[in-house]
Design brief:
It is found in: Gas vesicle. One of its GO terms (molecular function) is structural molecule activity. Pfam families: Gas_vesicle (PF00741). By secondary structure, the protein is of the alpha+beta class. It has a domain of 61 residues. It is 36% helix and 21% strand. Strands 1-2 form a two-stranded antiparallel ribbon. A hairpin with a 2-residue loop joins strand 1 and strand 2. The termini are far apart.
């Protein structure tokens, strides 16, 4: 019987339960915004938002943060040079120095 008092459900869900469900299952929110003027489309924005836990996102194949240099620990480390590339640069610099040296001693054609 209701005697004017508010009844509370025993199966009430609190915010933590809702958040746990959302992160466990994931939510996708999608929408398109188009701005047109006199029938001419000026701007079209496609919005896609996925809210999920990291585990759920990785399960779905989404792991862009693992390769983002600003979000990974390796982003702060300097890049290691390729030894083959360094060797090639040394050979090119030596060849350029040789070519410049021989060009300075050889008179140019057409000049006296």
């Amino acid at each position: 019987m209701n005697d004017g008092k508010m009844e509370h459900s025993l199966n009430a869900t609190n915010l933590a339960d809702i958040l746990e469900r959302v992160l466990d299952k994931g939510i996708v929110i999608a929408g398109d915004v188009t701005i047109s003027l006199v029938g001419v489309e000026l701007l079209n924005i496609k919005l896609r938002l996925l809210i999920a836990s990291v585990d759920k996102a990785m399960e779905m194949g989404i792991n862009w943060w693992a390769h983002d240099p600003f979000l990974t620990a390796g982003a702060q480390a300097p890049a290691v040079a390729d030894p083959a590339m360094l060797e090639r640069m040394d050979r090119l610099e030596a060849a350029l120095a040789t070519a410049l040296a021989s060009n300075q001693t050889t008179p140019m054609k057409g000049h006296k």
